[in-house]
Write a structure and sequence with these properties.
With 277 residues, the protein is an all-alpha fold. The protein is 75% helix and 0% strand.
């Protein structure tokens, strides 16, 4: 019995503790730094809890640095991008699941293959294209990039979710007089809610954290998103660590709150998508 308990500790709890420490410690350190005064942050001694807690860093980041603009710009770009990604993913996922056509598997393989293309390879061509049509410097360019790069994987995920919906339910609806389009809206989409939430969550994380293309396409400080705002906080002669840590906490707020709220849908969606596909 003692050997069994020891095995459980070393094989289960100890690895979990190490992984949790590895994941949580950077977040803890960011929170710790965000509530410290600048003199304490730059002091010679390391403190693991703020001596004189302050919210001045959050106020500074939100008002003086301009994180209020960055935050709402990211919210706007990510929200619009996710709407388009989810709509396209539902249509493509449904087509890949329900219809048989030539080169279906080749198309599915192509959707997966494009994920292996490094984004940096397409940076210059996309910049030339957007510059030619006058989109450089606008959020539209970033939205198009987000939709382009996030949609293929989301379509593959959505295909698995659609296949989890029995086709017999659609047939029963069509027998009762529903058209295929109406059957999709009345039968398929309500049953796809966990899958839609899962796809939207993954797409939102990718769009929210987009840095490379945002750095290349946005040249107006009033249109910067959160990742660019964090980068701009690194000054030429110094770094305001407290405000940067506060900005990082603000940047994490949306993903953390989102996953906390949709956790039950996320688990259900991932389980449903793993059954078939």
């Amino acid at each position: 019995m003692k050997e069994k308990k020891r095995d459980i500790v070393f094989l289960r709890w100890l690895p979990l503790l190490l992984i949790c420490t590895y994941v949580v410690f950077p977040i803890y350190w960011a929170v710790n730094t965000a509530f410290k005064e600048e003199s304490e942050i730059l002091g010679k001694s390391v403190t693991y809890l703020p001596k004189n807690g302050t919210v001045a860093n959050f106020v500074d980041a939100w008002t003086n640095v301009g994180f209020d603009k960055y935050f709402f710009n990211s919210l706007k770009v990510s929200g619009i991008s996710v709407i388009f990604i989810v709509i396209i993913s539902i249509m493509v996922g449904y087509a890949l699941s329900r219809y048989k056509f030539k080169f279906k598997m080749a198309f599915l393989g192509l959707l997966l293959a494009v994920q292996f293309i490094p984004a940096a390879v397409l940076l210059v061509p996309l910049f030339n294209i957007f510059n030619g049509v006058g989109l450089v410097g606008s959020h539209i360019a970033l939205i198009l990039v987000n939709v382009t790069f996030q949609t293929p994987f989301c379509c593959v995920m959505m295909r698995g979710f659609v296949e989890g919906v029995p086709y017999a339910l659609e047939e029963a609806a069509m027998i009762d007089g529903c058209s295929r389009i109406r059957g999709i809206f009345k039968v398929v989409i309500p049953m796809l809610v966990p899958g839609i939430v899962t796809v939207a969550a993954f797409a939102l994380i990718g769009c929210w954290n987009e840095f490379l293309f945002a750095m290349m396409f946005l040249n107006d400080p009033n249109k910067y998103t959160v990742p660019i705002g964090l980068k701009m906080m690194q000054g030429e002669y110094g770094i305001h660590y407290g405000a940067m840590a506060a900005g990082a906490i603000i940047a994490m707020a949306i993903p953390v709150l989102l996953f906390a709220y949709i956790q039950k849908y996320l688990v259900t969606g991932l389980s449903a998508g793993a059954v078939k596909g």
